[in-house]
Design goal:
alpha/beta, three-stranded parallel β-sheet, two-stranded antiparallel sheet
């Protein structure tokens, strides 16, 4: 029921733990995938913490948050004078993470001209700084994640197929929170512990379970991130408003759908 930083009771998440545990036992590239807020970064960190590289650094680089003109330098480093403003030699993320793990978040945002260079690093375990002709060996493990469907990106020729197959050696799918509502109480308790707020008066209703039925009926489109924001909001306002959406209403009966599909939807709602 626990893997690294992750905790869960649900079968869906515990099945994901099995894949994450297998990933921790090897050095292959891993692609955690799932909706936004499902916990891809904690999953990557958990793989690192449970692996033989646990004593090495765990560095995170968001490929979608850095301008394309600077991303190459962030990844691979540069020599002094490599470009305007490069007044000193800079070590890139891959060299800085030697002996540890690099987590490339939002790898689907990586520009096409940088993708062959990343592929070279993953395949040959060596980097070439900007402004240098020397290739330096690096000992790192790569974990990548994205909100995009990389298969569709490959078909649309926005992502290289050879890089996709190197990144997706092991794929770990993290289920959305609406498919594992039995974990809500455990997640709330963990969030309160992380915030050091378990003993605060405002946390009483959250811990006692008064709101649990309401929280479990909510669909949580923002997943665990939305749940965490909700818990923090309750602590700040010292009250427990219901989750902001009418998604807890009874599921509509669509007569155009098969009986089994409608029945299964109702059973999930009742449970």
């Amino acid at each position: 029921e626990r893997f690294g930083r992750l905790r869960a009771h649900s079968m869906a998440m515990r099945a994901a733990f099995a894949t994450l545990e297998a990933a921790a036992g090897c050095d292959s590239t891993v692609l955690p995938q799932g909706e936004s807020g499902t916990g891809k970064e904690p999953a990557a960190e958990s793989i690192h913490l449970e692996s033989a590289r646990r004593d090495g650094p765990f560095l995170v680089l968001d490929c979608g948050a850095i301008p394309a003109s600077l991303l190459e330098s962030e990844l691979f480093g540069h020599e002094a004078g490599a470009f305007t403003g490069a007044t000193a030699t800079r070590v890139g993320t891959f060299e800085a993470a030697a002996g540890g793990t690099v987590f490339l978040d939002e790898i689907g945002e990586l520009a096409l001209d940088l993708q062959p260079k990343l592929l070279r690093v993953i395949e040959r375990r060596e980097v070439q700084r900007l402004g240098s002709t020397e290739r330096r060996p690096v000992d790192v493990r790569v974990i990548a994640a994205t909100n995009r469907n990389l298969r569709q990106e490959v078909n649309a020729r926005r992502f290289r197929s050879d890089l996709y197959f190197r990144v997706a050696v092991l794929v770990a799918t993290l289920p959305p929170l609406r498919e594992r509502t039995s974990d809500v109480a455990l997640l709330v308790d963990g969030i309160l512990t992380d915030l050091g707020a378990r003993e605060l008066p405002a946390a009483a209703a959250l811990r006692s379970g008064e709101l649990l039925p309401e929280l479990m009926r909510h669909s949580w489109p923002g997943n665990v991130r939305e749940l965490r924001n909700y818990v923090e909001s309750c602590l700040v306002h010292e009250e427990q408003p219901p989750p902001a959406a009418a998604t807890s209403d009874e599921p509509a009966i669509d007569v155009a759908q098969p009986l089994r599909a409608v029945r299964d939807r109702w059973v999930r709602w009742v449970e």
